[in-house]
Amino acid sequence: xxxxxxxxxxxxxxxxxxxxxxxxxxxxxxxxxxxxxxxxxxxxxxxxxxxxxxxxxxxxxxxxxxxxxxxxxxxxxxxxxxxxxxxxxxxxxxxxxxxxxxxxxxxxxxxxxxxxxxxxxxxxxxxxxxxxxxxxxxxxxxxxxxxxxxxxxxxxxxxxxxxxxxxxxxxxxxxxxxxxxxxxxxxxxxxxxxxxxxxxxxxxxxxxxxxxxxxxxxxxxxxxxxxxxxxxxxxxxxx
Amino acid sequence: xxxxxxxxxxxxxxxxxxxxxxxxxxxxxxxxxxxxxxxxxxxxxxxxxxxxxxxxxxxxxxxxxxxxxxxxxxxxxxxxxxxxxxxxxxxxxxxxxxxxxxxxxxxxxxxxxxxxxxxxxxxxxxxxxxxxxxxxxxxxxxxxxxxxxxxxxxxxxxxxxxxxxxxxxxxxxxxxxxxxxxxxxxxxxxxxxxxxxxxxxxxxxxxxxxxxxxxxxxxxxxxxxxxxxxxxxxxxxxx
Amino acid sequence: xxxxxxxxxxxxxxxxxxxxxxxxxxxxxxxxxxxxxxxxxxxxxxxxxxxxxxxxxxxxxxxxxxxxxxxxxxxxxxxxxxxxxxxxxxxxxxxxxxxxxxxxxxxxxxxxxxxxxxxxxxxxxxxxxxxxxxxxxxxxxxxxxxxxxxxxxxxxxxxxxxxxxxxxxxxxxxxxxxxxxxxxxxxxxxxxxxxxxxxxxxxxxxxxxxxxxxxxxxxxxxxxxxxxxxxxxxxxxxx
Amino acid sequence: xxxxxxxxxxxxxxxxxxxxxxxxxxxxxxxxxxxxxxxxxxxxxxxxxxxxxxxxxxxxxxxxxxxxxxxxxxxxxxxxxxxxxxxxxxxxxxxxxxxxxxxxxxxxxxxxxxxxxxxxxxxxxxxxxxxxxxxxxxxxxxxxxxxxxxxxxxxxxxxxxxxxxxxxxxxxxxxxxxxxxxxxxxxxxxxxxxxxxxxxxxxxxxxxxxxxxxxxxxxxxxxxxxxxxxxxxxxxxxx
Amino acid sequence: xxxxxxxxxxxxxxxxxxxxxxxxxxxxxxxxxxxxxxxxxxxxxxxxxxxxxxxxxxxxxxxxxxxxxxxxxxxxxxxxxxxxxxxxxxxxxxxxxxxxxxxxxxxxxxxxxxxxxxxxxxxxxxxxxxxxxxxxxxxxxxxxxxxxxxxxxxxxxxxxxxxxxxxxxxxxxxxxxxxxxxxxxxxxxxxxxxxxxxxxxxxxxxxxxxxxxxxxxxxxxxxxxxxxxxxxxxxxxxx
Amino acid sequence: xxxxxxxxxxxxxxxxxxxxxxxxxxxxxxxxxxxxxxxxxxxxxxxxxxxxxxxxxxxxxxxxxxxxxxxxxxxxxxxxxxxxxxxxxxxxxxxxxxxxxxxxxxxxxxxxxxxxxxxxxxxxxxxxxxxxxxxxxxxxxxxxxxxxxxxxxxxxxxxxxxxxxxxxxxxxxxxxxxxxxxxxxxxxxxxxxxxxxxxxxxxxxxxxxxxxxxxxxxxxxxxxxxxxxxxxxxxxxxx
Lengths: 239, 239, 239, 239, 239, 239
Known about the structure:
The structure is a homohexamer. By secondary structure, chain A is of the alpha/beta class. Chain A contains seven helices and five strands, in the order αβαβαβαβααβα.
């Protein structure tokens, strides 16, 4: 399942025999997620989904990257945030190496959905497309889940909230410390702040008290099912 | 109204006498906007709003920048797109120069709302905040308008569509060539494409045929009113 | 006249039908120009000349850039100065985008004539020539005017002096505040100074008291006439 | 054991209560290791040692990075190699983030020992020391093992050779495919080659046929014991 | 005379005992200079002057740098040209190292006078002044000599012409091959050219046939005398 | 012997008539070498060897570079150290210029053997090989000499020690001040230190008291002989 479990020659043969091999790069961050969820929260989600997809699609997984760009949470203890340019370059170079080795279907799945973090992934991919003809998909699993916001959960439920807590309860329940604290932060609109953490000192944006492992399993399954379909569409597409 | 209409000493005195002076930087792009709207479409909107705000708030306007980052439209004739890093650095350095001159309330208003373009503005501002204690607001006027999507106009109306066409009809009607063409593009989800223009060969995402100058005036007024309030809130805020 | 007044398809057709289309990029700065001239002084001059040339040559004008590199004036209130690399990259990328759209005759006209500022423009152009075969001309209108220094005006007349004041009196008289102050600065030769402004606290290098709108009109006409000829030579040249 | 298993507040308290907390960053690469060892070979070794050290020293482990700089193996299928600058920046920024969070004892342990790869780690650390007063140790476990070269194993045994194969047999025997092939490459001295892989087409530099899990356990234990002592010395040292 | 002839402790004592010690960095290039002058022509001149100044002023000489930026000559055999940014960074870092070691009077003397080359030196110095309070002078010896153009030699005499040939005849006569060829190039004004060498295929801009060692000695003496005075002024100045 | 003693046309003809011409770039540093050796110690050695090789092989010498990367000695008076990226770029661009001029056999010989310094040279060369097909060799003369460590001199003899002192006694005896001081530093293993100079305040790692000019001559001859053979092998090799 993991690409680097293979030997060099096994990898070479795999690519030669199946040019449509899908390679998935799971991305997470080390980031504050309230008093109840671990710093690895985003990593756990994307790696869980990526492993499920790898099984279903016989895809290869790249070694996960648990470093990315965190913005509003950057001043909480333990949050690790890279600069835009370094994160962009890291992803771009890994993509280019995959292209050099003839991989032609790549999915980058990020458990973290910050706007700047996601923009870095897209800029990386855009630059790769200037050099290589490769099919790529980039998303956070929350791009899928948030289509249900305002319907299945409140629109303001987000970071360390009900959905995210539910998913970690389903994936790694032993890392969840208690039920969490409901918190609806009030950010001044469009402002760029030096101390965004002052707007949500609990580190939560949402209502983790309504979380459950069952809900988490539902969301995880939903993401896997939808992504599986989209990846197969990409493999079948002409460009 | 424009900062550079002042002499050096007038500017110095203005800042000394009113440390709360708001400085607005209008941003646009040179970008394809269908067969009916000019390449300056995004520039016209942010400059129009910025001038209205400057009048209402006695703010100073920086010389507009009509260069930014365009992604899905980049392969249409005439679209000019900068790299992320160059655009980020340009904005960051201008912001740092304003801070060096003791400006303490800055608004960046972009007529273009592309995700990567907006991310570059935010990264620029974040870096400035590491060095200077300044109050900043960054937005596209479409951040305000899109809160009404699905209510006052279809959710899929966007680039060169009904709202945007209406606004240019209100601002510079002589630059609108005919009624435009309705087009609802179908982008494959989450894909990064070499040729996104193939998904909307007309260059339109929306229905410009329903546009009118009256609607445009309404949207323009709405943006000015809401922004005026938000900027006053920022000036009054502690940080 | 302005390139971005066109729609994408109008621009595409214009370039297809006339491969010799000249595109002019006017450059200015936000820079101290004494107690009598606005911070926009350099921008006003290059934009005025560029518009006159566009009319005479049926050329297209790029949206002006009013940001560049200022050195000896950088510590006066209001002067905005970019780093060499950011300004170079900005210009280089705009040039490359024009080349990508098949523009083959480009003129960069800068109202500001600082050595480092001009060097950045030239380095940008040199890099573009490594990739594209395009005809380019780069100059400040003062490159032309200074051929007359020591003859029609004193050699030491420069920044915010007689010629420059005359030209703004001709272009935007309402922005000229009084007659200005005569000042002949004494810079220590070849020194690189932390505080060059101490050598000319009035912000003037020259004698603005001898300025007149008539002189300004003469200089403006002279620049337009000479540039028109040089641009036609470039268009007619083989490389 | 893993830092990101903690919540933000647990991490904050851990650092406050024990300023001497050691943080270990394990580094590996995705790199050709002959027909018998997986691409993850270097990652497996540093992560194994790091986990053993974390247990013995109650240290915190950072999420491992399995991306680095590979040189002589870069043209074999599956090898992923970053540029010097990107890898250096990635490590530097992670180190700076740890310093920002008051970590004062850091160990970077790399399973890969390439000269350029190791130089990038050292340059990263040097730059961090310009800003932060932190105690750091950087090494490959092969820095320790190679002190025994020429004594306990032939000097020419290296990449995918006897020692490395033994260690993987001890750590993840199920990933070892057969016994490997003895190969003593003959590189032209001091040359920088476009195709270094031609000098060792088997991808092996050493004699894996003499490997055994017992030997691997011995080497692993030796590295853990020696490193434990060195890390305790660092914690106890004044700078 | 050369700084690096000293031991570390001799250098330390020298700086402690005389904080006004002047350090001179001679710069040259490897550049085409016609059929009669060596590629080292610019290096020979600045090193000759620097050595004379070091003797007269008891100054320290840095190891010369014979690499810089060449533009119009870049396509002739043997011309070596660095990028702007690399040359700027090289000079900036050397300057910063001198400042770190408490040098407070620095002269950069370049035998090459190309505009972009000189701009790189100035940008380097400007950045150093943002961090260190140091007195610096940057010039080409031709900045001094060209004040006599149009008087003592024709204005169009320059690269490999009468003055330059005379100076090499005085400095290293054995490297002068014959009398050279008179050539008055005709560059199209303000153009940036891909092949500037086509405008002067002989590689000469001037009239070397009028050169003599006597003239060269006169120019060399004139530069030394004037520079000596200017450097003493700088040492005596307050900033 | 020195490439820049030639005129442009002589250089062009030399390369045309002998495509196998070897070009050698000698590299040194300005670096502390104890109380008895000059800051130019490393430069003197590589330049001496390079000149000897140029004579024996009819090779061309590039103007020496006496600037590089110093690490453990950086805080001693007079040591000049460049950043990795600037030094790498400087070397890379010089190599690329040589390749542009059709040089196909290049030797970089560094008198300084620091790990980061040498890594920068190798990274520069690797990047050149991505663009040009050229034969390159990169080494410090100490790469050759250290094969004899533990045999002909103690393993711990290094910086400013017996061998190095002997060589300077043979090359420039007038720059050697006394016999030097024996010193065996004790660096904590694998540590990255802010103040490495505290581990060897004399600036010596070795025993210079056992040095002699005769030993120095022997080492110099040995390096020349071995390098001559290796360079001829490279010229004769296919790639």
